[in-house]
Specification:
single chain, alpha/beta, Rossmann fold, 6-stranded parallel β-sheet, 39% helix
Length: 384
Amino acid sequence: MSFDTIIPMKIALVHDQLFEFGGAERVFVVLAKIFPQACIYTAFADKNKLSAFAPELTNRNIKTSWIQKIPMITRIYSPLRFLAPKIWESFDFSNYDLVISSSGWYMCKGIKTKEPTIHISYIHHPPRYLYGYETAMQWRKYWPIKIYGNLINHFLRMWDFKGSKRPDYIIVNSQETKRRIEKFYRRDAMVIYPPVHIPEHIKDTSFKGKFSGYFVTVSRLQKAKHVEIIIEAANKGNFKLKIIGDGKERKYLQTIAGPTVEFLGNIPDDQFDKLFAGSKAFLFSSVDEEFGIAPVEAMGFGVPVIAYKSGGLSETVEDGKNGFLYDQLQSKSLFQSIKRLNALSQDQYRKMCLDARKESEKYSEDHFVKEIEKFVGEIANKSK
């Protein structure tokens, strides 16, 4: 029996967009599983992408906004982000008892609801482009885009603050995001860590036999991910590195990669078992990451993580226990942490693998589902 059958409420789910599929969309898919009867609202969606990345949503009742009718919207949605306030304020949720928004860069937390409808917003992050954090595109490099961006961002920042007051309750994905919510929105929030796919068939790290193998990273190949730092370290240390993921920076990154670096692109989920089984550690160099799902997924396979100490990574990676944190965004600093890993004995390394797996279990999908159901159940009972 589904949760929304046990709690007899008419529920709507709202997500920024269903075109690009990253960490926020994976969280939303789990929310949709928790509430299978809920109607889904989004700014725009791509049916082909849904079929490929979230087939479980293809038969759901999905309502898109009027912006879906704009030709080539999936190519021009970023410069048209100034339309976001009009998009979210155009939806009518008066027939629902509960609305749960899943909000990130497109700010769907700004939807309007009226009593007695309850609005809970799961905020992945305040929009990075509004608050000085690095983004996928270096838009400040190009003066026409910089002028345009600064102009519309000024008004969007004011609306974003206004929209942040509309949810009745706010849930966030990490303590790091909680601090940003307090700083930019002056609101408190409940932390419920996002769901991470933790392989059930791996109960120990017996597969981590020899203290050898290649290094691996899984990332969108975008500027803010700083994969070039990892590549430079691989070139210097002459170690094997496998890069999983794709993006606008791929061509550039391939030009600076040495012979020990291999680009695998996007790979099917069923290949991760083999990939991580042969890896020595997971490398991560992203800046101001709110949580960091990919490193925790690696830990689920018993793989230690070496990550740049930034954003929410210090919440999941404990230096010297389940991995290492490096302080400077430089290949030299990363390589020093790799040397620390290499200096471990076989027994110390095995313990680190076991601790990595143990840490990952705190962020399982089951744990996320229980926390969301508990939170929503308490709110529902309070509203009776």
